[in-house]
Amino acid sequence: MQATADSTKMDCVWSNWKSQAIDLLYWRDIKQTGIVFGSFLLLLFSLTQFSVVSVVAYLALAALSATISFRIYKSVLQAVQKTDEGHPFKAYLELEIALSQDQVQRYTDCLQLYVNSALKELRRLFLVQDLVDSLKFAVLMWLLTYVGALFNGLTLLLMAVVSMFTLPAVYVKHQAQIDQYLGLVRTHINAVVAKIQAKIPGAKRHAE
What we know:
Order of helices and strands: HHHHHHHH
Distance between the termini: 31 Å
Oligomer: single chain
Radius of gyration: 25 Å
Shape: elongated
Largest sheet: none
Structural class: mainly alpha
Helix content: over 70%
C-alpha cells in the first residue's frame, strides 16, 4: 500500500510539472512564458560572452543590488513616515523553503527510475539486442559528430531552447500540414527499415 501511495505521489508530481511545462511551451500564459523564455535567452547569451563564474557573480551582484537598494529605501521611508512596518522581506524570510525528507525521497526515486531506464536502453543499443535500433543509434551518433564540429555546446543549447519555445506554437497553428508531411516521412522511413530488416540476417525483432 505504501509503495502504491508513493507511486501515486510521484505520478502527481510528474503530472504537475508536465502540465506547467506544456503551458509554458504552448504560450498559454504569454507573460509568464515571455519571462521564462527571455530569462533563458539572456542567461545563454551571457554564457557565450562570459565564463560561468562571471555570469553567476554578475547575477548575484544584480540581485544583491536590487534587494539592498530596496531595503535601504524602505528603511528611509519608514524613518521619514515614522512607521514601523518591519523588515520589507519578512514574509519571504519566514517562508519555509527546506525540502522535507519525503520530498527528497520522492525526487530521488523519480531520478532513479529515469537513470535505470536510460541505462537499460543504452545497454540494449550497445549490445545490439535489436540490430536495426543499434544501426539507427549509430547513424544518429555519426550525424552528431558533424553537428558537434559545426556548433559548440552552448550554441546547441541555445538552439534547443529557441526550438522548445517556438516549434510547439508553430505546430499548433499548422498541425494539419505538418502531420501530413510527417506521415509521408514516417511512411518512407518505415519502408526503408522494412527493406533493411528483410535483407540483413537477424535484423528482425524477436519477442524476448
